Amino acid sequence: MTARTIPAPARRLAGAAPAGGASRAARWARRAPLLPALLFLIVVTQVPFAATLVISFLRWNALDPTHRGFAGLDNYATVVTDPNLRSAMLTTAVLTASVVLVSLVLGLGVALLLDRPFRGRPVVRTMFIAPFLIVPVAAALLWKHVLYNPEYGLFNGVLTAVWHAFGGTRPPQPDWISTMPKIAVEAALIWQWTPFMMLILLAGLQSRPTDAVEAARIDGASAWQIFRYVTLPHLRQYLELAALLGSIYIVQNFDAVFTITSGGLGTANLPYTIYQTFYQAHDYGQASASGVIVVAASIVIATFALRVVSSLLRKEYQ
Amino acid sequence: MRNPRRVWRPWGAVAWLAGVLFVLPAAWMVLTALHSEPDAATNPPSVAAPLTLQGYAEFFGAGTGVSPWPPLINSATASVGSTVLVLLLAIPAAYALAIKPVRKWTDVLFFFLSTKMLPMVAGLLPVYLFAQYTGLLDNISLLAVLYTSMNLPIAVWLMRSFLAEVPKEIMESAALDGAGLLTTLRRVVAPVAAPGIAATALICFIFSWNELLFARVLTGVVAGTAPVFLTGFVTSQGLFLAKVCAAATVISLPVLVAGFAAQDKLVQGLSLGAVK
């Protein structure tokens, strides 16, 4: 399953094997250190996936254990026509795309700010990293109860304070999570993931060849032109890397959806839906079928991601 | 020439302003943890309310008698245990990959990475059933093993990029002198790769410490971890903001300390070693 996801460039690279001549025993001796990790990963990650695949073809409900049997494609038929799963797919796509895009743009902005020297830069950099270092479920609880709460949350508290400061008597007190559930979840995730994007892009900015920037400046290029024609092309692969790694993590997000909305109000993404099917409905066959579909979708994303990483790896050996 | 000082100064102010706005929710969490429950739940917010350690006292069991230490110790056990296991498996593997002994070594490398890209939630059910049949439900060692598999791909990639920087000549001369694998690892590779090992350990520790989904499904009263414990602080009755903020701060503290201490290593780890 995973072998197919290896992009062609990597295969070509793999052909460049070390010069032969070593005896069989010696080759195995050099291979040996690799085997424990390889075996461990196959047993702990691939075997469960294989089991999921098998279970997805079974009729198996935990509350009805005597009725177990082969179900063919029934579970897939149920799952594909289930409006919940379809809306979960859409939600996952929207959630992932919006969080990745917005945090990437914000991260780029912050990275550009932090790329310039100014007084107290290490302190500001540390402030920008902080949200990423808060335990995700703690951050989700913070947003839900301390910031969004309509009665005493910080957001409405600030609205009240500002309104009173200008002599207003009835400040707007929106119920953030009920009126905009998706944006509420996304905002909390964007807050946590902007530092991630910023760190990768800042590393990209700082590896930018200074002579090219210098040459462009001497040739009279404006700041915008330098950014558009020198910085951005250089940053491209870092932007791709940040977007794809971010996608891998955010597609799998569970904590924020679970904590902030409990999957309600149209925010249930695929991980939460699978968790719920398995936890509440006890239909193991259907939960596995949705798991298989999620894996299939991930392989598509992973193929792109691996291609980007392999291009970085290829560069390393040029 | 423009005067650089006059150009940069406004950008510095913008950066400071953005940074303060960005860190505000986290700072508010720390401040709320130090307020009393009534002061934490006012509208408009009571910024200058008197400080108290009541929230922290309640987190540590005052009044309820529920101690946070078992979940904290469980989290530490799972995180440290899996990090040690990851390093034991990843260092030899990365060593083998860095000196490229195996034909198709990049295939192996990409296999490691691809396992990271498949959503773990899809394997949740078989793991749960396995744990049920073998009596490993609510057992912290099962979590440690799962966290090891979650972090091993990252660790192998990271360690490979660090070990690739160990000069080949040194390793060859060690081999000529008749040093075995373990001796070479300990005497030659370890000193050069020590910072890389530290960075790898840091990333693995953070991801294990943060994990919620598997901990929630596979543990109960005995092996519950700190993130699971934290979700239990929200009650439908009474005020809990200061308590939750104190709990969130304490539980985030190890990650914050580790992350700030190794900011430079963080980016390397997060990009799987692709960014140096």
TrEMBL record, chain A:
Q: What is its subcellular localisation? A: Cell membrane
An example GO BP is: transmembrane transport
Main location per UniProt? membrane
Provide the topology term for how it sits in the membrane.
Multi-pass membrane protein
Domain named ABC transmembrane type-1: residues: 89-305
A cellular component term (GO) from this record?
plasma membrane
Q: Which UniProt keywords apply?
A: Cell membrane, Membrane, Transmembrane, Transmembrane helix, Transport
List, alphabetically, the SUPFAM superfamilies matched: MetI-like
Give the stretches traversing the membrane: 34-58, 88-114, 126-146, 183-205, 287-309
InterPro entries, per this entry? MetI-like (IPR000515), MetI-like_sf (IPR035906)
Keyword Lipoprotein on entry? no
Record family assignment = Belongs to the binding-protein-dependent transport system permease family.
Under the heading PANTHER family, the entry gives:
BLR7065 PROTEIN, INTEGRAL MEMBRANE SUGAR TRANSPORT PROTEIN
Entry protein name: Sugar ABC transporter permease
Organism annotation: Gandjariella thermophila
Q: What is the lineage of its organism?
A: Bacteria, Bacillati, Actinomycetota, Actinomycetes, Pseudonocardiales
From TrEMBL, chain B:
Please list every transmembrane segment annotated in the UniProt record, as residue ranges: 76-97, 109-128, 140-159, 188-208, 214-233, 240-262
Can you name the source organism? Gandjariella thermophila
Highest taxon, organism lineage? Bacteria
Gene Ontology BP annotations? transmembrane transport
The protein's matches in CDD domains, at most eight in alphabetical order, are given as: TM_PBP2
Instruction: Report the membrane topology from the UniProt record.
Output: Multi-pass membrane protein
Under the heading Pfam families, the entry gives: BPD_transp_1 (PF00528)
Q: Which protein is depicted? A: Mannitol ABC transporter permease
Q: SUPFAM superfamilies of this UniProt entry? A: MetI-like
Compartments annotated for it: namely: Cell membrane
Family, as annotated: Belongs to the binding-protein-dependent transport system permease family.
For this UniProt entry, what is the primary localization, expressed as one broad class? membrane
| Entry keyword set | Cell membrane, Membrane, Transmembrane, Transmembrane helix, Transport
